[in-house]
Design a protein that fits this description.
single chain; 419 residues; mainly alpha; 76% helix; globular
């Protein structure tokens, strides 16, 4: 199982790029949890915590495709590092200002989300230039999803550890400083400095002119809603079963489940149509959310969280292959950034929705949201199945005013029936 992953990590620059990207994305991955715990420490309500986390997520969703398009046009270093610094500074303002005055708190978290660098999309754009072979790139997509789950497993524990040792304020500041260092490691690497987007057609819609990509975005919106609602619903459950430590273990449980599922999924090449496989994976994901409404004791609930996360990384990895297939030429970073954006918007909607649901009906109603959202995601994939399964050509696009024709285009692979 480990052989394929080791082959990827032995490639020059691969381990550095993966590690730097994960570290750089740590503030974004832990923002919802850190903001909720910080607002609670300030004496705020669950609704306020959910609203601030939602504002961060929506701003992040707006910024990711915009910054992704700028990366496609101007390269990674000129966009990634400045945006990482600006995001960290905005979060520091929120940490030291607190929730009073409230308008400044909203403005600070919005700026932090808006300037979050598109490191995730940038890494997936770099894989073809680092690995060269298509089968290695597909394995790297799966490894990327698995590695993210390590971060999502460790991240909540780091947040709760910082809160326990210092404060929720310190957690916000420290994690964002670490994120800037991760972004710096990526952008000074030779592959990042050398990468350029391929020629692209000048079109205001950019990657969104692809029907297949739009179908994926519709499905991933509801996957994000499911995950975001779990984040908020777990807080009152943890308050009744042991406090912040239990909350950290619940969040880590989802990451651990996705880590296990993604590791198994990425250990082999899968024959067959990726669009059909994504439908099956999302179906299993929705079913595994349903037992959370049982709300057993802390240990059993953590195990149910692990189960709920098992199919998350495989869903993400399979979607990456379909993004590569349907992204228009010259929009690779933007296309991957749209997936990140949609997932983030969904998570933000989920956190904003779960706050009032939890206050009105308790944690059990909050845990009912993920199952419903997962079912809607599956419905979207079933309705758009023909669009996602349709073959997509890779016609060469003439260089336009959006591109410098003297730049070297990024290597691309057209996804076939194996992922």
């Amino acid at each position: 199982m480990a052989a394929g992953y080791l082959e990827i990590l032995r490639a020059r620059h691969a381990a550095r790029l993966l590690t730097g990207t994960l570290v750089g994305r740590l503030p974004n991955a832990t923002a919802a949890i850190a903001i909720v715990l910080f607002v609670r420490a300030q004496g705020g309500t669950y609704s306020l915590a959910g609203a601030l986390a939602a504002v961060y997520g929506v701003a992040n969703a707006v910024g990711q495709p915009v910054l992704g398009r700028l990366v496609d046009l101007h390269g990674q270093p000129r966009v990634q590092l400045p945006s990482a610094v600006l995001s960290a500074l905005a979060m520091a303002v929120f940490a030291f200002n607190g929730t009073d005055p409230l308008p400044l708190a909203y403005a600070a978290v919005a700026a932090a989300g808006l300037f979050t660098p598109p490191l995730e999309g940038g890494l997936r754009a770099l894989w073809p230039s680092v690995l060269r072979r298509e089968d290695q790139v597909h394995t790297a997509y799966a490894m990327d999803a698995v590695a993210q789950e390590i971060m999502f497993t460790v991240g909540p524990l780091l947040v709760t550890l910082c809160v326990s040792l210092w404060s929720a304020q310190a957690a916000l500041v420290v994690l964002n400083v670490i994120g800037v260092l991760g972004a710096l490691s990526v952008v000074v690497s030779p592959p990042s400095r050398a990468w350029r987007s391929g020629p692209r057609e000048a079109h205001w819609l950019g990657a969104l002119r692809s029907p297949g990509l739009l179908a994926l975005l519709g499905a991933f919106l509801f996957v994000g809603i499911a995950l975001g609602s779990i984040t908020v619903a777990s807080v009152p459950y943890a308050d009744e079963h042991g406090g912040d430590a239990v909350y950290g273990w619940l969040m880590a449980g989802i990451g651990l489940g996705a880590l296990v599922g993604g590791t198994v999924y990425g250990a082999r090449q899968w024959a067959g149509e990726p669009a059909r496989r994504l439908q099956v994976l999302v179906g299993f994901l929705a079913v595994c959310y349903l037992p959370l409404t049982l709300m057993p004791g802390a240990v059993a609930m953590t195990l149910l969280m692990v189960l709920a996360g098992v199919f998350l990384a495989p869903v993400i990895a399979c979607a990456f292959v379909l993004v590569d297939r349907h992204a228009p030429a010259g929009t690779v970073t933007e296309a991957f950034s749209w997936i990140v954006t949609t997932f983030t918007v969904g998570a933000s909607v989920g956190t904003g929705l779960a706050g009032p649901v939890v206050e009105g009906g308790g944690a059990v109603w909050g845990f009912g949201v993920p199952g419903v959202a997962g079912g809607v995601s599956l419905l979207v994939l079933l309705v758009t199945g023909r669009v996602l399964s349709a073959p997509v050509g890779r016609a060469v696009v003439a260089a336009s005013s959006e591109n410098d024709p003297n730049r070297a285009a990024e290597p691309r692979f057209s996804s076939g029936d194996r992922a």
